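Single-chain item
Fold in C-alpha cell form
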Amino acid sequence: MPINTTDPYKVQILIRRGLGDDNEHAKDFQWICNADQELAVTQLYTNVLQQQIVPSGDKALDMTKPYMPVTYGGRPLNISYKAKQGRLDAVCPETWGIIETVEPSLYDFGRWLTTMPVPVNDGSGTTTYRTSSVFYYHSFLNLFQSNFKAAAVFSGCAVPSVTS
C-alpha cells in the first residue's frame, strides 16, 4: 500500500493512544526509511505541486525541485540505505540507547600480545610474513529501546520503481 499524507497523523494517534496525550514522546518522533520511501514522500509533494500551478505560455514548466524533502509531516526524514525497503519507521531517538557489554580495547592474541605480523599466502602452501604488523580493536555493543510505545512501523509500503 502506498504511503499518503495522513500517515504522520496515524502515527501520532498510535503513539498518543499508547503513551497518553501529555507524554513528550508523542511529539518527538522522527522517520527512518530507505531511499524508496524518500522517493514516495517526494511523489506526494509533486502531485500537489502539479495540481496548483497552471503554466502560461507555450512551454511546460519544470515541475521537479532539485532536492527531495528532508521532512515528512513536519518531522525529520532520515534516510538509510541499510533500512529495509518498503518500510517506514517512526522512532523517538530519546528512547534509544547503547549498551556496552565489552569495553572497546585492543584484541589480545594470547599472552598479552596485541599486535601480530601480517601473514601472506603465496599459493604454494607456505606462509610467509610481511614486515608490517596488525592490531584490532574489539567491543560488543547493542541497541536498546526503553519505550516500545514511542515508535510505530509502516511495513509493506509500496516501493516506487527506480530503474536505470
About this structure: Strands lie at 30-33, 71-72, 75-79, 87-91, 96-106, 116-121, 127-134, 137-145, 152-155. The mean pLDDT is 87. The chain has two domains: 7-92+147-155, 100-139. The longest helix spans residues 35-52.
